[in-house]
Amino acid sequence: LANPWMNYSVYLSNSFLPCLLQLIIFQITAFSILQEIKLGTSIKWVNDAGQSIVIALFGKLMPQFIIFTSVGLAMQSLIYFYWGFPLNGNVWSMIWAMVLLVIASQAFALMITSLIPNLRFALSILSLVGILSFSIAAFSFPVESMYPAVGIFSYIVPIRYYFLIYINVALNGYEVYYCRWDYIVLILFALAPMGLLWKLKKNSLNPVYVP
User: Distance between CA atoms of 137 and 142, rounded to whole angstroms?
Assistant: First the structure.
């Protein structure tokens, strides 16, 4: 109903492009942090922040957040205003969804980085999750039709919830209230790595690179 032109790009571009952005965020976030540990410069990085891992991460990730958010908003402008794809809901709902997707993707990568302070291993895991997101996030195959052991993984990637917001807001024109849980889950993704920052600080102050 929301795609009277039967244009398949209306469906795929709105899902594949943000998923590609998520993959890039995963990689750059993990690389920028774990490269410090690999090279042994993480000690100076944390000390320059007054021994505060929160300040250290803010200084490193905030410029990336601004760049990624700008790219995401430019992507939405291209999709909804230049290409003229359907946007039946509030434009601000999609803008906030993109902002939360960027934060959630950075937080997901930060969580993996804190758990696995090894550049090669962490990048491999994030690459695998990022690539599989194109499938397990149910862009082209519904979760309900997947094997349960596979479909459950669709709920652990941030892009899944951005995708649900897109379907409900942009295509179906729902109010934010009816997809509020998808926004809440993206916020929970942002909070998820907070309890692991002590581990990242410990590894940063005692860098051990395992090739």
Answer: 8
* pLDDT score at 22: 96
Contacts of 199 (CB under 8 A, 6+ apart): 114, 115, 117
Q: Which two tokens stand for residue 208?
A: 């051990």
In sign, the C-alpha dihedral spanning 196, 51, 116, 68 is: positive
- Cβ contacts of 200-204, under 8 Å, gap ≥ 24: 200/33, 200/53, 200/57, 200/110, 200/113, 200/114, 200/117, 201/46, 201/53, 203/37, 203/42, 203/114, 203/117, 204/36, 204/37, 204/42, 204/43, 204/45, 204/46, 204/53, 204/56
User: Token pair of 154, please?
Assistant: 């669709």
Q: What global pTM score does this model have?
A: 0.93
pLDDT at 192: 94
Q: Using an 8 Å Cβ cutoff, are 68 and 21 in contact?
A: yes
- Predicted pLDDT at 47: 94
Domain residue limits, the chain:
8-205
Instruction: Tell me which residues of the chain have a pLDDT lower than 50.
Output: none
pLDDT tens track for 123-141: 999 999 999 888 888 777 7
